[in-house]
Amino acid sequence: MPPPTTKPMPMFICPRSAVFLLSMLANACHASGIAVQVADSAGVPLQDAVVYVEAEPGQNLPKPLRAGEIEQKGLKFIPLVSVVQTGSRIEFPNNDKVRHHIYSFSPAHKFDQKLYSGTSATPQVFEKAGVVVLGCNIHDKMVAYVRVVDTPYYGKTDASGMVRIDMPPGAKYTLRAWHYNMVGGQPVEQALAVKPGDALGTAAIRLAMKPPAAEAAL
């Protein structure tokens, strides 16, 4: 007897956005964790996409436990993209041999700070959710992005476009994905219901991206 065939799961288009495709595999909406792959509209994996899962209002969430670090080295911010929970602090060590003067005009966190080589500086505390774009007043080509989220359940995709996020069962969540060069700039989203005893779920997200010229102009 030939083995039974498996029908492919349908592709869904979120009604709240027309710039991405979201495909949820069989158990993705009922999982204690979720493995997400993010790609562009052509299917090319996207590195440095931020994926986060937010619980519905009223749930007690763990407070920030991880501090971030954005290094200045080789006249670059390293890493290019960071993600932290609201209330987290980020250190900005200057490991170049020159002075930097970093800043942000973003509403989520406006600041201006001089960084001297080999000298520690006061960390910045990010209290408001949103996107913070970093620059340097001295070196105009330096740029970095901080996504501040109201949840401890988050991650950033690797070179293969993959990230895994674990969260407690017995709750309803919203899965969101964002990339600094995506069309529209707003995260895409999908509802999740996580039940006790459920297995790992998987999701595949496609984001429409700006052309390379638009990215270079940022």
Largest sheet report = 5 strands, mixed
Assembly type:
single chain
Backbone CA Rg: 19 Å
Coarse shape: globular
Per CATH, the architecture of the largest domain is Sandwich
Number of strands: 18
CATH superfamily of the largest domain: Carboxypeptidase-like, regulatory domain
Instruction: Work out the helicity level.
Output: under 10%
Mean pLDDT: 83
Order of strands, widest sheet: 7-13-12-9-10
CATH class of the largest domain, please?
A: Mainly Beta
End-to-end gap: 59 Å
> How many structural domains can be distinguished in the coordinates?
2
Query: Low-confidence parts, pLDDT < 50 over ≥5 residues?
Result: 4-31
Figure out the total of helices. Answer: 1
Annotated CATH topology of the largest domain: Immunoglobulin-like
Structural class: mainly beta
- The fraction of residues in strands falls at 35-45%
Order of helices and strands: EEEEEEEEEEEEEEEEEEH
Subcellular location: Periplasm
InterPro entries: Cupredoxin, MauL
Organism: Pseudoduganella namucuonensis
Signal peptide: 1-31
Question: Could you explain the architecture of this structure?
Answer:
The chain has 218 residues and is mainly beta. The protein folds into 2 domains: 20-58 and 158-216, Immunoglobulin-like (Sandwich), CATH 2.60.40.1120; 68-149, Immunoglobulin-like (Sandwich), CATH 2.60.40. Helices cover 2% and strands 43% of the residues. The chain contains 1 helix and 18 strands. It has one helix at 212-216, and strands at residues 20-24, 33-40, 50-55, 68-69, 71-73, 76-78, 81-85, 88-91, 100-104, 111-115, 124-126, 130-136, 143-149, 154-156, 162-166, 171-178, 188-194, 201-207. The protein has a 5-stranded mixed beta sheet with strand order 7-13-12-9-10, with no helix packed on it. Strands 1-18-2-15 form a 4-stranded mixed beta sheet, with no helix packed on it. The longest helix has 5 residues, at 212-216. The radius of gyration is 19 Å and the shape is globular. The protein starts with 19 loop residues before the first strand and ends with a helix. The model is unreliable at 4-31 (pLDDT under 50).
